[in-house]
């Protein structure tokens, strides 16, 4: 199978390329040539730029499928589709669980959950626009390719090479052991999908030439923030004491912390993706692999969470 990957050299796309190569696919990469330029030296690399709309490098060639992992706004997908036309068999768009409405969603919700209204009037991505822009991308891909379109909507993706590093915060924090400040409640549900499981879902959907929408969430068994932190501690051989602190005492957008009203959005059903072949790596394995990766790269500073000093101050001054 010949697969063109738009992106493919950062976190999610890299995992997809690695899985596709394991499955024996011929992979071509398209990107600016800036990220991960040391990766995949044997693969053809077409140079272009989605920001400026430069798709000239795609003027020749045919592929059984394109995986669009770097499309965020409708202009991205429309320009790519115009460049590729019918020289691709299937268009698989990597979307996000952020397309779904945020309220009125019960636990176990599936891919037929209502989506937010599409946004086409902005390319500035933030909490309000990211999901609606992905909705517009999905709609345009479906309108152009119909049954040859596949939509994959990941929840929080975790694993080695994670550029967002929110999961890494907890892996590293638990490895330090001791009293751990947990904003909100340790019983909060958490869904994280291992990047390698997501990647294998993508290649299976392509191999099986399967249309439709699939949200990719994990792990295998429902889990909570508290259990996740304890799993991280076990992987590192440490002991932790979870100390709940009020959400508003912690920095905003704290890693993996979700306000109670949105807990059901962290309890989506993985049934459709699993039936289509998505594996479910056990959480302890994902944690252990992230711990090893983070240590091997020398544990650079993380952009999220609390420093040890800030956490100690918070634990000393805050009562739940
Ligand atoms: N991480 C999560 O938890 C999560 C959750 C839900 C959905 N997702 C989705 O998963 C995808 C993330 O993919 P990713 O981790 O591989 O990272 P990404 O940052 O979306 O993509 C980076 C890749 O795209 C290329 N790229 C970036 N800007 C480009 C441009 N202007 N023109 C052409 N290529 C460009 C990069 O190579 P060059 O820099 O060399 O161009 C690199 O290969 C996104 O679609 C995101 O919405 C992620």
Automatic annotation (TrEMBL):
Residues 3-209 form the NAD-dependent epimerase/dehydratase domain. Residues 103-127, 295-320 are annotated as: Disordered. Residues 309-320 have a biased composition (Low complexity). This is Reductase. Residues 112-123 have a biased composition (Basic and acidic residues).
